[in-house]
Write a structure and sequence with these properties.
CATH class of one domain: Alpha Beta
Protein name: Exodeoxyribonuclease 7 large subunit
Structural class: alpha/beta
Helix content: 40-55%
Largest sheet: 5 strands, mixed, barrel
Mean pLDDT: 88
Strand content: 15-25%
Strand order of the largest sheet: 1-2-3-5-4
Distance between the termini: 163 Å
Catalytic activity: Exonucleolytic cleavage in either 5'- to 3'- or 3'- to 5'-direction to yield nucleoside 5'-phosphates
Main location: cytoplasm
Number of helices: 13
Radius of gyration: 67 Å
CATH superfamily of one domain: Response regulator
Subcellular location: Cytoplasm
Function: Bidirectionally degrades single-stranded DNA into large acid-insoluble oligonucleotides, which are then degraded further into small acid-soluble oligonucleotides.
Shape: elongated
């Protein structure tokens, strides 16, 4: 029996399965609900993750071309709804979900983006109360950044003119919703700061849905408000509408009308305050005048002003006593200085160079005399020693012995004379010289005779 069978390579089998999956209409546009794990946001912008539930899991990828429009940043543990297609990654032979759309599961993506941006900006310190600037008490110009056609601008204008008509209102019209809203609001804030003619800014709009208010939740608007050198009042929507701009602004107003009331004081309140301050000032001035009059009366009744000549006499007497004390003090000081000078001169004379020279000359003379005496004594001792040595030398002199009858015999050779001390040193016929105490004799040896006992 011939059995026909088809054998696949691994690549061919994987490609076959991939084709079957990609031709399935259900798998090419599928919604999946699950929790993200192993989330990696690659440096090239692609997102890799695993979607799982209690029973199973599947790998997923969302390329940068699709995730760039996400309003929130996915992370591990985020529950999401994913729309995409299923295919096979041929290298690993693994099927995975290619995501084209991602939504948070359970809460809206805008709310999640709002919470994430709020947390990040708070960590950077944009909401720190230390960065909040106080509003000017009496602004000359109020800058209003809002839509020129909305109800908010009418409420702000009406409120400012009613409360504080002295203030000038500078309206910078902007788009407050739609794609142009964010760059329009940011440009308005920066331009108002460049112009520098507004003392305070009101940035806001009337109420609306979260989508319509979303421009005030954008990071660019928040950072523009944070960089503003002019104090900013946020006035977005109603009391219940809280945006990122409200957290960054120096003051948050519940409504545009409330923002206008915060920006300028009320004229009636100022008049009442002026009246109260005028009364306080008048009362304070009257009290000060009374105190000054009392002090004037006391001065006028003082002894100095009533008898100025007597006061001068007392000072004259005091001056005389002080002059006398000063003179005595100067004399005593001069005497002490003179005595001290004399003591110093005496001490200085003891150490003068002339005195030291004389003292050293006396010492040199004394030492010279001692040296002469010592040299004379030494010379006398050496002369006596020399005499004794001469006497000893004279006693040992050969001449002295020869005077007692002894003589010295020398044999006359051709070159020199040799002392003869034994008969063996001469021969018969040798010429000899016999030296006596008073001269010498020339002799010749006739014969020799040696004693037996020598």
């Amino acid at each position: 029996m011939n059995e026909s069978r088809e054998i696949f390579s691994v690549k061919q089998l994987t490609r076959y399965i991939k084709d079957r999956i990609e031709f399935d209409d259900v798998l090419q546009n599928v919604w999946v609900q699950g929790e993200l794990s192993n989330f990696v946001h690659h440096s090239r912008g692609h997102m890799y993750f695993t979607v799982k539930d209690e029973e199973s899991k599947i790998k997923g990828v969302m390329f940068a071309g699709h995730n760039r429009y996400l309003k929130f940043l996915p992370k591990n543990g985020t529950r999401v709804l994913l729309r995409g297609s299923v295919s096979v990654y041929e290298r690993d032979g693994q099927y995975q979900l290619y995501v084209k759309e991602m939504q948070p599961d359970g809460i809206g993506s805008l709310y999640l983006a709002y919470e994430q941006l709020k947390e990040r900006l708070a960590q950077e310190g944009l909401f720190d109360p230390t960065h909040k600037r106080p509003l000017p008490a009496y602004p000359h110009t109020v800058g209003v950044i809002t839509s020129p056609t909305g109800a908010a601008v009418r409420d702000i204008m009406t409120t400012i003119r009613r409360r504080y008509p002295l203030a000038r209102v500078l309206l910078f019209p902007v788009a407050v919703q739609g794609e142009r809203a964010v760059p329009s609001i940011c440009h308005a804030i920066e331009e108002m700061n460049v112009r520098g003619d507004a003392d305070v800014l009101i940035v806001g709009r009337g109420g609306g849905s979260i989508e319509e208010l979303w421009a005030f939740n954008e990071e660019a608007v928040a950072r523009s408000i944070y960089r503003s050198h002019i104090p900013v009042i946020s006035a977005v929507g109603h009391e219940t509408d809280v945006t990122i701009a409200d957290f960054v602004a120096d003051v948050r107003a519940a409504t545009p009308t409330a923002a206008a009331e915060l920006a300028v004081p009320h004229m009636d309140e100022l008049r009442d305050r002026v009246v109260v301050l005028t009364r306080r000032l008048g009362s304070a001035l009257r009290g000060e005048v009374r105190q000054m009059r009392v002090r004037l009366d006391k001065v006028q009744r003082s002894y100095v002003l009533r008898q100025p000549a007597r006061q001068l006499i007392q000072h004259e007497q005091r001056l005389d006593r002080m002059c006398e004390r000063l003179t005595n003090a100067m004399v005593r000081t001069a005497e002490r200085r003179k005595a001290r000078l004399e003591r110093v001169q005496e001490r200085l004379a003891a150490y003068s160079p002339a005195t030291a020279v004389r003292r050293n000359q006396d010492g040199v003379a004394m030492l010279s005399a001692r040296l002469v005496r010592a040299m004379q004594a030494c010379l006398h001792t050496r002369e006596q020693q020399l005499d004794r040595n001469l006497a000893k030398l004279d006693a040992l002199s050969p001449l002295k012995v020869m005077r007692r009858g002894y003589s010295l015999v020398f044999r006359q050779d051709k070159k020199d004379a040799k002392l003869v001390t034994t008969i063996d040193g001469v021969q018969t016929g040798d010429a000899l010289t016999v030296r006596l105490a008073d001269g010498s004799l020339s002799c010749r040896v006739e014969g020799t005779e040696k004693r037996e006992n020598t």
